[in-house]
Design goal:
Structural class of chain A: mainly alpha
Largest sheet of chain A: 2 strands, antiparallel
Distance between the termini of chain A: 28 Å
Order of helices and strands of chain A: HHEEHHHHHHHHHHHH
Order of helices and strands of chain B: HHHHHHHHHHHH
Shape of chain A: flat
Shape of chain B: globular
Strand content of chain B: under 5%
Radius of gyration of chain A: 27 Å
Largest interface: A-B, 109 and 103 residues
Structural class of chain B: mainly alpha
Distance between the termini of chain B: 31 Å
Radius of gyration of chain B: 23 Å
Number of helices of chain B: 12
Strand order of the largest sheet of chain A: 1-2
Helix content of chain B: over 70%
Number of helices of chain A: 14
Oligomer: heterodimer
Chain lengths: 319, 276
């Protein structure tokens, strides 16, 4: 709002334009009001529809389901939250958090070299192609990409075929017989769920890391080399610390998306539920909406804590 | 600087370990999709056997003749179009309000815009469902649209605000100084500048909405969008070949607008980091 003082109303050409002109000038003289008019529709939508819904959800979590009548008692209570700390619910929360952590670590490990190559080595023709190659799966076909792993991990599918061709079926069986992460087949084991999670969320990790490394000035790297650092220690002491905010930014996505997903563990994996699935079944067939609401507050709280830590590590500058 | 150095060809050569890891990573991201396309031509219809015993084209006409699939596609397209239109209106307004003014609560407003995609889809979904239940709104076409529009706004907003920041306000001030009113300035100066960014944001929003399933399962009643149709097939596979064909169709429908969005904003890297 810098040019406020030089707003000279130009001559009106027609009476219709004159009205618009007057309205325009009037808005110009009242920038706060103009701002309010611009902001009102999106704020009304998000405020009423979205925040309202979140509050409704929060309110529900303080009600409880009467076990005898099967009706929801609408009075303030913390007993639904207390239920979260009982055996099976605590298991679900723990299982989901561990999975989200492991998936995040794996995404960072696999994603870093790709991002590093894209930012530092890819030529002007290769880079846009790689960028597209990461961006396309990020934006599209979530369900189709989950589905593809049903084909890949099926007992008669390509993974088994490759292991058979390499005469390594014994290895596959050995992996599957590992307790906890194994199972009757890859598509019904935690290992399968883990693979699919990593596959689906990997692009979310690559792009922020790539952006962070891209921002490291070339001169800084040259300076490090001029001062006698071999490439390895330039990477270790210059590039890596500057890339960490990107890794943390990416981990926000992979962690939060894994916490809240209920489709992937339902399609690929063992029958032991994750938070998302528990929420879904409580609000659906079980009709226990308070418990579903309280359970869905859990990922919000975990993510809020995670965001606080991430903010300290400077992740928001890398988003 | 870096660009000149690259053009001169003194780019450092990557160690083979990094090159291999990058190549493997990109293949990991794309081979599964290639496999889906292969399976759409597989003659086997009872299992996911690899390699396919024979290749055939017969599933494509079969899928083409299915009225339930066409109905699902129609519903998904209508939802995506209306959600995108709403997102473009709200996202542009929010971007125009936020990009150069500072006001109390500006940070809170941008947080509110990002929240629907920052929180897990299941939270958005169940929250909307709880609200519809409390307000006694029956589930319908419009409840799906409301959910989709909510998380699409930020996509348009991100693209629009990046473009506005890049354009700066000198052109707008020049237009006003030369006597154009706010509406003329918007029509002849702001909109032409913003058009490709809005188109790109709209395309991304369309792609996002077209295959969204998590929020949709909570906000749809008996309505079957294409992703919901696919989800039931995934949980209980009954018509594998048809599902494969539909999967290929979904890949095509969502890839094309994203490619278009990329080329529309290629020079500016606006889509950079604007993750879901």
């Amino acid at each position: 709002m810098t040019a406020q003082t030089i707003a000279v109303p130009p001559p009106a050409r027609a009476s219709g334009a004159g009205a618009l002109q007057r309205l325009s000038t009037w808005l110009y003289r009242h920038p706060r009001l103009a701002l309010a008019i611009l902001l009102a529709p999106p704020l009304a939508w998000l405020g009423i529809v979205y925040l309202g819904s979140l509050l409704a959800l929060l309110a529900q979590s303080f009600f409880y389901l009467d076990g005898f009548t099967g009706l929801i008692v609408r009075e303030f209570t913390l007993r639904t939250y207390a239920e979260l700390f009982t055996g099976s619910n605590l298991d679900i929360i723990l299982r989901t958090t561990v999975m989200a952590t492991v998936v995040t670590l794996a995404c960072a490990l696999i994603g870093f070299p790709i991002a590093y190559y894209m930012a530092r080595y890819a030529g002007p023709r290769l880079k846009p192609l790689m960028y597209l190659g990461v961006m396309l799966p990020l934006w599209s076909s979530y369900l189709v990409r989950v589905y593809s792993w049903k084909l890949i991990l099926a007992k008669e599918g390509i993974v088994t075929w490759i292991f058979a061709k390499l005469h390594l079926l014994w290895l596959l069986d050995a992996i599957l017989s590992i307790p906890v992460i194994g199972g009757p087949s890859l598509s019904t084991a935690y290992l399968g769920t883990f693979l699919v999670f990593v596959y689906i969320w990997l692009p979310y990790m690559i792009l922020p890391i790539e952006a962070a490394i891209e921002r490291v000035p070339r001169s800084v790297i040259e300076a490090s080399a001029d001062l006698g650092a071999p490439p390895r220690s330039t990477f270790r002491h210059v590039v890596l610390p500057l890339a960490i905010p990107g890794v943390v930014a990416g981990s926000i996505f992979t962690f939060s998306l894994t916490l809240g997903d209920y489709i992937i563990p339902g399609i690929i994996g063992s029958s032991r539920p994750f938070i998302g699935q528990a929420v879904y079944s409580h609000q659906g067939t079980a009709g226990n909406i308070p418990l579903a609401a309280a359970l869905s507050v859990v990922p919000i709280v975990i993510i809020a804590i995670y965001l606080r830590i991430a903010k300290r590590l400077g992740a928001f500058d890398a988003l | 600087m870096a660009v000149i150095a690259q053009a001169l060809g003194d780019r450092p050569k990557a160690p083979w370990g990094i090159r291999l890891a990058a190549l493997a990573g990109i293949l990991f991201l794309h081979l599964p999709l290639a496999l889906i396309i292969l399976y759409a031509f597989s003659a086997e219809d009872k299992s996911y056997v690899f390699p396919p015993p024979a290749l055939t084209l017969k599933w494509f006409p079969l899928a083409f003749d299915r009225p339930d699939i066409w109905a699902a596609i129609g519903l998904s397209v209508r939802v995506a179009l209306i959600a995108t239109a709403l997102a473009i209106v709200f996202g542009t307004l929010a971007a125009a309000a936020i990009y150069r003014s500072s006001f109390f609560g500006r940070e809170a407003v941008s947080l509110l815009l990002i929240l629907p995609i920052a929180l897990p889809g299941i939270v958005t979904g169940i929250a909307l469902r709880a609200a519809f239940n409390i307000a006694e709104i029956p589930f319908s076409f419009w409840t799906i649209v409301v959910g989709h529009a909510t998380f699409c706004i930020v996509v348009v907003y991100n693209n629009a605000i990046a473009r506005l920041r890049r354009t700066g306000s000198s052109q707008i001030e020049a237009s006003m100084d030369l006597g154009a009113n706010a509406f003329q300035t918007f029509r002849h100066v702001v909109l032409p500048n913003l058009a490709t960014a809005l188109l790109a944001g709209g395309m991304l929003a369309f792609a996002l909405s077209f295959d969204e399933v998590i929020v949709t399962t909570f906000t749809a009643g008996q309505q079957t969008t294409l992703p919901i149709w696919m989800l039931t097939e995934l949980v209980r596979p009954r018509q594998r070949p048809i599902t494969n064909v539909v999967a290929v169709f979904v890949i095509a429908v969502t890839f094309l607008p994203i490619l278009a969005a990329y080329y529309l904003t290629r020079d500016t890297h606006e889509v950079h980091g604007s993750g879901k």
